[in-house]
Amino acid sequence: MAVEDGRTLAGASADKGPMLWGGCFHRRTLGSRSRELRILRISKVEDPNEELLHWAQVMELEKAYYSTTEESFDTSVGAGGDANAGKCWEGIATEAFFCLTIDPSSKQQFLGRRDRDIHDDILLETLESILHQQKTSSTKEVIAITFSDHIRGGECDVITKGEAQAINKNNRIRALQFVFRRLRRAGLLFLEDDQADRHILLSFEAVLKPALLQLLRDYPQGRSIPEIAGAILIQDQFKCIPLHWIETSLGHLVASQLVVQREESQLFFIK
Hints:
By secondary structure, this protein is an alpha+beta fold. The chain is built from nine helices and nine strands.
């Protein structure tokens, strides 16, 4: 197995024994520094456009980081800013997934960055709107979201006419394309039916919790975290969720006494 690290294919072989989630696949020494490749997420790419987008991101990494000198590799202010922005967004996405809320301080920090994206406002605005829809739904069933509904919702706020209105609409379409793509990649939205333009909001309570409970019912002999993660991440709707969401979800199920974990085997069982 090999991993594209932005410059070339790096051998991805385990140091010892079987490979575990989060385990080190490859270690490469660079002078006094070392670089490690760890498996934190596995995604199955089916859309050729997604593969092209992934390659563009790899090339961006190559230009931004791997082409720099060794002295500047880990001292770049921009790199630190990108890392902080990534952590802030991951925190927002995690809270949205588990609590259907966005912490005001996290929102302020995310929108207060100097290097913020021009679409970040509408990203959080759209996410808050979707979370509100789910929280106020009369049932606990997952809600359906369509791209076209959000386009029409924005048009209600537009007062301009003619060419200016067309430009405004086109700008909103581009912004929402960015938003929906970002939410899908974060594991918060899943395109359930592309013909009907129907997305669903992925959340712990409405989607992942039932899936985990059903999985453990199907395996009364118990499942380990790698086995559970493999069975969940292979499903299309979960292909973009982070591994730690699965681990955290199992912790919630144990705390709520719906699931137990045996100390000797570390396997999870339905209670």
